[in-house]
Specification:
Elements: H1 3-11, H2 13-25, H3 33-49, E1 53-57, E2 66-71, E3 80-85, E4 101-102, E5 108-109, H4 117-132, E6 140-145
Parallel strand pairs: 3-6
Antiparallel strand pairs: 1-2, 2-6, 4-5
Helix pairs in contact: 1-4, 2-4
């Protein structure tokens, strides 16, 4: 791994975990479109702050939102696309008010902690690290839906 990327990630470890926690604690299932829109807006802000030009797409009222975006649109290479979903099968509150936790062995727990919210946070911080080192090879696109099915 590029040492500058590794150093960047290590320097921001606490920020990464905080973003992970915050996203997991923003719960929403397909049965809760208002909660999913809150998550989509939170993600949009995070990716916009990282330099991604993004917007939320919905096809009709109370339909699950999709976040799409691009950074480096004018880069010459073929685009890299990160995709995933931010809904879970659990309704808000199933695991209490703040379901994210890291146990004494260092394992994270909470709805969507790995599938798929952890991957979305990895994408966010990958983009941040690549931008930090001046990556210019390819456009990077994101597409995160709120309906895994």
């Amino acid at each position: 791994m590029n040492q500058r990327i590794s150093d960047y990630i290590n320097k921001h470890r606490e920020d990464i975990i905080n973003d992970w926690r915050d996203l997991v604690n923003l719960e929403g299932s397909l049965r809760e479109p208002d909660n999913l829109l809150i998550e989509a807006r939170w993600l949009k802000q995070k990716f916009t702050d990282a330099g991604v030009s993004c917007h939320i797409v919905t096809t009709k009222e109370n339909y699950p939102p999709v976040l799409i975006g691009t950074i480096g649109e004018n880069r010459l290479g073929k685009p890299v696309i990160f995709g995933g979903h931010f809904d879970t099968v659990f309704d808000k509150g199933t695991f209490g008010d703040h379901p994210f936790r890291i146990d004494e062995e260092g394992n994270a727990h909470g709805p969507g902690v790995l599938d798929m919210k952890g991957g979305i946070i990895i994408t966010l911080w990958t983009i941040k690290a690549l931008e930090f080192i001046g990556y210019q090879d390819r456009p990077i696109r994101i597409c995160f839906c709120s309906d895994e099915e």
